[in-house]
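lol forgot to send this yesterday, sorry. struct tokens for the thing we talked abt
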């Protein structure tokens, strides 16, 4: 996914991570575990379906999905928001955050993997790769992402404050911290991008 230079290839690997994570979340094969795994897969698949529509729109506009060719080209708001739906589903941002707290039924190493690297971080990565270094999105789009990030930070922090299950507290904390990263990326300045990258590293560790 990281080394893909084509949006369709990136999308294919994006979905492979969803399938792998679905199986890992339902590792113990109990009914509750399977429901949580199915929920995570369905929510992220819903976002990915909208994201695919946005990618198709880019192809219809420019006739290519090669990232180097798309660099510096403007993207329509509709395409940008469709891709954003996939990003917020994968990175567990409001209103598609509900799958991550339930994914805590997985074994602890899997929970750590989900929070630190696999699902939530690749959502952040794809946002940075597409909107901060490839296509040019509108100011309206970035302002909307900033507002969504602020709401996510506040709501997730409040949920963590009243929760008493350790893994669910960790999940809401992760959602909140990813909101901070999305906020920095949406500012779309060189300094804020450096802050976001540093925050990704710190949170992953």
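and heres what i got for the seq, position by position
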């Amino acid at each position: 996914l990281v080394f893909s230079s084509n949006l369709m290839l990136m999308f294919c690997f994006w979905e492979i991570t969803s399938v792998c994570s679905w199986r890992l979340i339902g590792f113990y094969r109990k009914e509750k575990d399977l429901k949580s795994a199915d929920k995570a897969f369905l929510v992220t698949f819903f976002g990915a379906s909208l994201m695919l529509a946005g990618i198709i729109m880019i192809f219809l506009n420019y006739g290519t999905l090669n990232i180097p060719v798309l660099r510096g080209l403007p993207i329509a708001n509709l395409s940008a928001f469709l891709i954003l739906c996939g990003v917020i589903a994968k990175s567990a941002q409001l209103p598609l955050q509900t799958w991550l707290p339930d994914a805590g039924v997985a074994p602890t190493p899997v929970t750590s993997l989900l929070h630190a690297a696999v699902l939530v971080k690749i959502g952040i990565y794809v946002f940075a790769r597409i909107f901060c270094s490839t296509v040019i999105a509108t100011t309206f789009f970035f302002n909307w992402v900033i507002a969504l990030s602020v709401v996510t930070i506040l709501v997730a922090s409040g949920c963590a404050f009243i929760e008493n299950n350790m893994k669910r507290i960790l999940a809401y904390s992760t959602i909140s911290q990813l909101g901070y990263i999305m906020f920095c990326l949406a500012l779309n300045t060189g300094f804020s991008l450096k802050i976001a990258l540093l925050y990704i590293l710190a949170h992953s560790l």
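The chain has a mean pLDDT of 91. anyway ping me if u want another try
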